[in-house]
Amino acid sequence: MKLVDCYKDAIKNGYALGAFNFCNLESLKAILSSAQKNNSPVIVAISSGALKYMGDEYVKGFMLASKKAFSIPMFFHLDHGKDYEICEKAINLGFDSVMIDGSALEFEENIKLTKKVADLAHSHGVQVEGELGRLLGTEDEHVGTQSIYTSPSQAKQFVEQTGVDSLAIAIGTSHGISKFSGEPKLAFDILEQIQTLVPNFPFVLHGASSVDEQTIVDINNLGGNISHAKGVPETMLEKACTKYNVCKINVDTDIRMATTRALRRYFKQNPESVDTKVYFKSAQDDIEQLVSHKICDVFHSNNKA
Ligand SMILES: [Zn+2]
Questions:
Q1: % the chain with pLDDT above 70
Q2: Tell me: the pLDDT tens digits for 162-202?
Q3: What Rg do the C-alpha atoms of the chain give, in angstroms?
Q4: CA of 135 to the centre of ligand 1 (A)
Q5: Domains, in order of start, for the chain
Q6: CA 100 to chain centre
Q7: How far does residue 247's CA lie from ligand 1's centre (Å)?
Q8: What is the pLDDT at residue 178?
Q9: Strand ranges for 109-214 from DSSP E
Q10: Near ion ligand 1, which residues have CB within 5 Å?
Q11: Ligand 1: distance of its center to the CA of 153 in Å?
Q12: Tens-place pLDDT, residues 48-86
């Protein structure tokens, strides 16, 4: 199955595919095991930082091995490709989907770059996500300092002129652990306007981790020091995918937090342990639990594979 077909089904049936970031074998296996258990299609996202960290050849090996080991529809996706070259590299490595993030460019420049990547990707049967509007926060090598909501009329023009398969929009989410200084708020009115002008089209929410308060408390009780953490409430994400055409929701921070809590807890409870496999397995189990929760309770992509 192709990712566009999954998006079509997601629009029709009111759910979203989780795009879960991974950076090692443990997180990758946890994400895929969870998707398999819940019979859910899944997007596994690799940032350019994670690609650098794991290395091209290892990522290639992970992709081949994963497709042999699991039978659910899975899509390896480049998260925040910042230029043509990194997207080209991902396409050549065998990614199923790439994001070209020209959101920091002027509108016309963003269209030009995104179209160039879309033309290349489509000639290889690879799907493309573009981004319009700006998100606050830091994710990997991606830094946003100014938040600008996506303009509905520009979204229409952008989709028509670039040929992208999905579009990341800015409606108030942001990257990193601290997403809101006050009450969390998403601009559903803007989403509604975008969707009226660009009907039946899949939209993407970045910076959509929920940054669970109890997890932060636990991490800090286990010796961590995290402050000013606030994420997007899961009820808002659920609304975005069940009532609107948000078909891909990105989760990175929540996975990092689950990993951090699991490892801190393990070391606290087992100060004598030096068994690498055992403590990394504890992180894997917790990531799997988190991903299952997102798939079944928030994105509702379970039993859609
Ligand atoms: Zn992002």
A1: 97
A2: 999 999 999 999 888 888 888 889 999 999 999 999 999 99
A3: 18
A4: 8
A5: 3-216+231-254+294-299 (3.20.20.70)
A6: 14
A7: 15
A8: 87
A9: 127-132, 137-139, 142-144, 166-169, 203-205
A10: 206
A11: 22
A12: 999 999 999 999 999 999 999 999 999 999 999 999 999
By C-alpha distance, which of 73, 76, 34, 27 is closest to 56? Answer: 76
Ligand 1 center from residue 136 Cα (angstroms): 10
DSSP 30: H
Q: Which of 5, 56, 79, 119 is catalytic?
A: 79
The two tokens of residue 266 are 């393990």
Q: How far does the centroid of ligand 1 lie from the alpha carbon of residue 80, in Å?
A: 6
What pTM value is reported for the model? 0.95
Active site residue 79: yes
Whole-angstrom Cα distance, residue 218 to residue 57?
37
Could you tell me the pLDDT band of residue 139, with boundaries at 50, 70 and 90?
A: low
170 within 8 A of 134, measured Cβ to Cβ: yes
Query: Among 114, 79, 85, 116, which residue's Cα sits nearest to residue 99?
Result: 79
Give the distance (Å) from ligand 1 centre to CA of residue 273. 36
Per-residue pLDDT, 180: 85
CB environment 91-115: b (16+ within 10 A), e (fewer): bebebbbbbbbbbeeeeeebbebbb
